[in-house]
Write a structure and sequence with these properties.
With 364 residues, the protein is α/β, with parallel strands linked by helices. The chain contains nine helices and 25 strands. Helix 1 runs parallel beside helix 3 and helix 1 packs across helix 8. The chain binds flavin-adenine dinucleotide.
Length: 364
């Protein structure tokens, strides 16, 4: 029997597996390789930090899903792909051959500017590691950082800074200081002016200091663009996505940043038996933001195309929508959001986000 290997339990693969529970793939040995049975849902992690969710509300158990879809679950990390030999290597050294491969492993945090930093540093990805590290940080209450810096001016960095500031306020930690270092492009550079203003107002209300400069590591210090130096107790890096280096070494065609290059059907442009979705890939025909929304929307097309590949069917193109709804939680059960040119904020935005997020995780 021919083998389809799913690499990573990312958004697209979870949805594909769910579809195959209802309509199983024919005559295919299905294997899911992922390092943890738990898939943490990034959209709810700031809410977990803020104290609104338990960890079990923010993660999906891939084990029963894999079982129901008839997939063998291999709890391991892929460390190498040999695309020409059609095989992957797992962390323990074993090799696994495939006839078709689908890659949905996300990305890691880009720590380029923080290389050589010697102070306490948590990076947001991988989320399962961040979850453990954050628990250790808040459990060691005496050593809890008073002066905490979040680096990253995107939506995730802003959300995390607000979640942490809210949690500290609720814990009456009056001497705690939260700083958000956004980089030279400032806060939310990819969003509208109005959304930026709404978010800025919420950050300021929570006492988060916004520093619109780039931070470079210098030993135990962070040096800002203007030459000022900081020595925070803890740095949380939310500094964008970097590809896993083994992708560029795999023989698969990749873009200049090492993400797997795919066509509109999410099929590798160099190896037709390989597919990819989510943050791990870049489209050849158009640039897509690295956001969970695209991974989720591409999922039904990926699932259909993997079926087509295994059953010699026709491939379908994934056409991303022109506008996407973005919702940013502001720590205190208020959220801001944007859709195309519109921006809005309020408790109702949080309730909408909460409903969508709970619905997604609960759906599994
Ligand atoms: C704090 C935060 C909040 C966010 N909020 C939102 C939001 O509200 N909306 C939104 O659209 N986006 C949001 N994002 C972005 C979102 O997290 C990513 O775009 C999304 O997770 C990408 O999905 P994915 O399926 O590509 O990969 P992921 O969700 O990252 O999943 C990758 C999976 O692959 C596994 N894996 C990794 N390496 C390997 C390997 N070598 N071998 C096997 N398995 C591996 C991982 O364990 C994981 O299970 C947020 C990001 C952060 C950091």
């Amino acid at each position: 029997m021919k083998r389809l290997v799913l690499m990573g339990a990312g958004h697209a693969h979870l949805i594909a597996l769910e579809q195959w529970v209802k309509a199983p793939l024919k005559d295919v040995e299905l294997v899911l390789v992922t390092p943890s049975r738990w898939q943490y849902y990034s959209g709810m992690i700031p809410g977990w930090i803020a104290g609104h969710y338990t960890v079990d509300q923010c993660r999906i158990d891939a084990e029963p899903l894999a079982k129901a879809a008839g997939a063998t679950l291999v709890l391991s990390r892929v460390v190498e792909i040999s695309a020409d030999a059609k095989q992957i290597q797992l962390a323990e050294g074993s090799l696994l051959a495939y006839d078709w491969l689908s890659i949905d492993i996300g990305a890691k945090t880009n720590l380029e500017s923080l290389r050589g930093y010697t102070g306490p540093l948590l990076s947001i990805k991988p989320l399962e590691q961040f979850h453990q590290q954050w628990l250790r940080h808040i459990d060691g209450s005496k050593a809890k950082a008073r002066d905490l810096v979040v680096i990253g001016g995107g939506a995730a960095g802003a959300e995390l800074a607000m979640a942490i500031a809210h949690a500290r306020r609720e814990g009456a930690e009056t001497d705690a200081r939260v700083t958000l270092i956004t980089g030279n492009q400032g806060l939310l550079p990819d969003f509208s002016h109005r959304l930026r203003k709404l978010t800025q107002r919420k950050l300021t209300k929570l006492g988060v200091e916004i520093v619109e400069q780039r931070a470079e590591a210098a030993g135990r210090y962070l040096i800002l663009t203007n030459g000022a130096s900081l020595r925070p107790d803890l740095v949380v890096a939310v500094t964008g996505a970097e590809s896993f280096s083994f992708l560029a070494a795999s023989g698969l065609a990749v873009d200049t940043q090492g993400f797997v290059l795919v066509n509109e059907c999410h099929q590798s442009v160099s190896h037709p038996e390989v597919f990819a979705a989510g943050d791990a890939c870049s489209r050849l025909d158009q640039a897509l933001n690295r956001s969970g929304v695209h991974a989720v929307r591409a999922a039904p097309v990926l699932a259909a195309n993997l079926r087509a590949a295994t059953e010699s069917g026709e491939f379908t193109a994934f056409q991303p929508r022109a506008n996407t709804l973005y919702l940013i939680a502001c720590g205190d059960k208020v959220a801001v959001g944007s859709y195309g040119p519109f921006a809005f904020s309020g408790k109702w935005v949080w309730r909408l986000k909460d409903k969508i997020d709970r619905g997604f995780v609960g759906g599994f």
